[in-house]
Please model this.
Amino acid sequence: MQIKTDKKYVRRVLADLVKINSVNPSLAIGAPGESEIATYIAKELENLKLAVQRLASVPRRDSVVGVLKGSGGGKSLMLNAHIDTVGVEGMAEPFSAVVRDGKLYGRGAFDMKGAMAACIAAMKILVDNKIALRGDVVISGVADEEFTSIGMSDVIEAYPVDAAIVTEPTHLQICLAHKGFVWLEIETSGRAAHGSRFELGIDANMHMGRFLAELDHYQQTLRSSAPHALVGPPSLHAATLRGGTGISTYAASCTLEIERRTIPGETEADVMAPLQKMIDRLAAADPNFKATLKTTCVRDAFEVPRDASIVQTLAKASTAVLGKQPDFMGDTPWMDSALLAKAGVETVVMGPAGAGAHADEEWVDIASVEKLAEILAHTAMHYCK
Model:
């Protein structure tokens, strides 16, 4: 069946979304959150006669879900995008949605309101063409992906599905894997004393320096280890360092925050073990060396087999729309796809083209948004039939 995107509709919805300030309040003090953009999306989905629900386990942090009900007996598919953005500091025109040379500019245009517009337009294609499906097609615009993903957690619990397409930007390539991360905190303990009394003080900052020297060697080993075929090697960096209370006082404590980027197959235990060994080794060499290690956030890496049903269906739909086989890829940033996969949902990632995620200038290629909408509609037609 020949189906086409309503290009005028795509451009209007895309511009409207970008003009709405949906900066994540966990990232910028005083930011409005996702309520206004969720209201807009809900209205568009209601106009398409979808069953619509808003979810907000935290005030002002609304996610919105629409369901195109199937007749029964078919597989269900979720089309997903996040609706929060990072901050706009340094941007000349964050909410202008101005179009130049086929590119629409503004905060979130690329990451990922272009994808949200494509998801809505895909649902419009299915509705306008009266596509009869046995399985449900679910569209979700989720809050807080840029921080702790409370929106996706809410949606997964409320709407179990067989498969999902997370529409993070991939330049119309099919993403089969991405990295995860573990946030860690290490604290070295010393003893405060006047700077003139070295015999009384124990310098927690100096002790942290010993650990950092070992950490530097370890991160070099990580980067040179055998890379994952799609996402490359694991890595880590020392993100923040805080220690001491005054220049004439021995530091009683020093705290280091570490981000460890993981590859598919690595676990939290895999991350913790070598760091704990460093601490144990330093403590064995000096009885005054004391340090504790803990994790503060864990997000799994993601990988889906190339022969998975949703991957193959998406690949065929992409080939039909683009006129060529799409490329397969892996990516380095973490995405909500990992949460869906952990919940047992067969998940794949594909989104539009553009540039400037989290940068001072951000844009999305409008033609790629239009193509993505067709690809998503074709995929739903075949997966949920």
